[in-house]
Amino acid sequence: MLSENLYGDRKNTKDMKEKIRQIMLYAAEKAHNTEQLPSGDFPDFVIEEPKNPIHGDLSCNLAMLMAKMQKMAPRKIAQILLDHTDDAEGIIEKKEIAGPGFINFFIRPAAWLPVLRRIHAQGDDYGRSDMGKGEKVQVEFVSANPTGPLHVGHGRGAAVGDTVANILSFCGYDVQREYYINDSGRQIRTLGTSVFIRYQQLCGKDIPLGGDCYQGDYIRDIADMIRNEKGDRLLSGDAEEAVVLCARFAADFILSGIREDLESFGVRFDRWYSEQSLFDAGKVEQVMENFRKTGNLYEKEGALWFRTSDYGDEKDRVVVRSNGQTTYFASDIAYHQDKYERGLERVVDVWGADHHGYIPRMRASVMASGRKSEQFQVILIQLVSLLRDGEPVAMSSRAGEFVTLKEVVDEVGKDAARFIFLTRHYESRLDFDLALAKKKSNDNPVYYVQYVHARISSIMEKARERGIAPEDWQEEYLSALTEAEEIRLMKALSLYPETLETAAAMMEPHRLSYYLTDLASLFHSYYNKHKVLTDLPETTAARLCLIMAVREVIRNALSLLGVSAPEKM
RNA sequence: GCGCCCGUAGCUCAGCUGGAUAGAGCAACGGACUUCUAAUCCGUAGGUCGCACGUUCGAAUCGUGCCGGGCGUACCA
User: Is 50 exceeded by the pLDDT of residue A57?
Assistant: First the structure.
């Protein structure tokens, strides 16, 4: 039987760990007040799920951590703490002291039931939190140069950046997604040159394509488009103008392709920020002028240097070369200044790991304008190796033989691609096997998780067919949930909010993928052992309530990962 | 040389702001479909957590030093 306070208390929304933590804190204070514990100074302690179920549902290490400052044996402190616990809600079935001084709690099975009520009440919002307190955070990701199509590596960055943004947003941060377009500088000029040479070749001229030019077939395709539009006219005009025209045309065309590819990968940006616009608005010049005034810049050997070494970089860096051209760093400084001036409190850049050497100088420039180091964070994405059946797929962008993100998404699907990118810590290198990604088996966790959603949807459909309507599912029936697998599922469901908060705090989306796989595994086991639609109406109602909660959380988490939750598979 | 990342089961990887007997999937072997979807489940087997010291009640986790792999060390982007 369920007690009234477990069941009827509307404020009963704190998760189990937090409840135990409060009980322990209260016990510690009480023990100090009665002078059984000399010190009133309590260290940070953890409430965690022991790996071994023999140690209970939750475990607390407070007694061991206090041993030194209390000048007492951990087990003795544990006993004192236990003597002072006050379990007003009646959630604890058994508590014990174990090992060097752990305090283990065995939770009364029925005490997990409120999580179901909470999930049903909050629906899509279960797990949402205000931990971010509205902090304005920008996630800048992908930001690939518009000189060629996105490849798989960009895909990983896109999946991670997008999902980090989703998670932060769900956890109460005010998130903005931005793509920085490097549409200025030498590479764009090289792009123009490459296209113009192809154009001239198409017009019958025998001009070789230099080794430093972009070699991909798409360059010729673009040149062909220009020829269809302009005919041979560019041949007779000014060559410089022709290159500029080719560059602009090509960059615009490639960028719109990038947009489309990202769109079909489920990624959208709040803003596409052009590097060229920084120059056009005079912001690069302005920012350099400001830093000159504050003494952060100096001239040496004809070039202009930024004193990044004042802020931890190993040496100073050039912002204007002796030939008068600004470096990429210069516009990047201006760009980041602009971000903060727009009111962003924290800036997160998602970069390829090969750019890690760039972090100290970027951070230095941010700190030079008085921002705190923590206001600039970088997520470094490690390399993706593309395989097919374990064999490496050739990926030389120099020769233009790369496999594009679009090709991968077309072949394996958005869901599988995203999930695989998000099932590994981004700081680990990733082998992406195309054959594996298409396999509809356990090799491929995305189907494993989606299958849960489909299975539950199917059961719900069956329930409807049998005339079991959702509104008939009474909470009073929940006490029928007593199977070990049912308790395990409820425990897992109650872990979701803190999983999200950790994922947000550490900006590690893979935590969500692993959580999903765990939850899915628990469900599949349950499904194989117990029938949901039974002859007992109360049991059926209770189990439906449970699996609907599972479905809700699966759907919720998948949507944060940008993966669909199919009703049928 | 210096800096950063990685090193955990045969393979691919979780676990790393310290917690008790180190986990998952794949691959291997043996089982479960007349059932709400077998894209599933159950079981067996599989480990000096790269090595060595150190910190402490306790180390895969923290520190130092090695070893191995990758990346970076431009008046490139």
Answer: yes
pLDDT in tens, A182-217: 999 888 999 999 999 999 999 999 999 888 888 888
pLDDT tens, position by position, A67-90: 888 888 899 999 999 999 999 989
Residue A169, pLDDT above cutoff 60: yes
**Would the pLDDT of A11 be above 70?**
no
Give me chain A's average pLDDT, please.
91
Q: Is the CB of A358 under 7 A from strand B?
A: yes
Distance A214 CA to B74 C1' (A): 22
Does at least one atom of strand B sit less than 7 Å from the CB of A300?
Answer: yes
Asked whether residue A61, judged by its CB, lies under 7 Å from any atom of the DNA or RNA strand B, the reply is yes
CB A149 within 8 A of CB A397: no
Residue A132 has pLDDT above 80, yes or no: yes
Q: What is the pLDDT of residue A1?
A: 32
Query: Which nucleotides of chain B have an atom under 7 angstroms from any protein CB?
Result: 2-7, 12-15, 17, 19-27, 32, 35-42, 57-58, 70-77
Q: Which residues pair with A405 in a beta bridge?
A: none
- Residue A430, C-beta contacts closer than 8 angstroms, at least 6 positions apart: A156, A382, A383, A384, A385, A420, A421, A424
> Domain ranges in chain A?
4-112, 186-264, 442-561
Distance, in Å, from the CA atom of A430 to the CA atom of A382, rounded to the nearest integer, reads 7
For A424-541, strand residue ranges (E) read 430-433
On the CB side of A369, CA atoms within 13 Å amount to 22
CB A500, CB A173: distance < 8 Å: no
Do β-strands A430-433 and A384-388 pair in parallel, antiparallel, or remain unpaired?
parallel
- Domain covering A442-561, topology: Isoleucyl-tRNA Synthetase; Domain 1 (1.10.730)
> What is A4-112's CATH topology?
Gyrase A; domain 2 (3.30.1360)
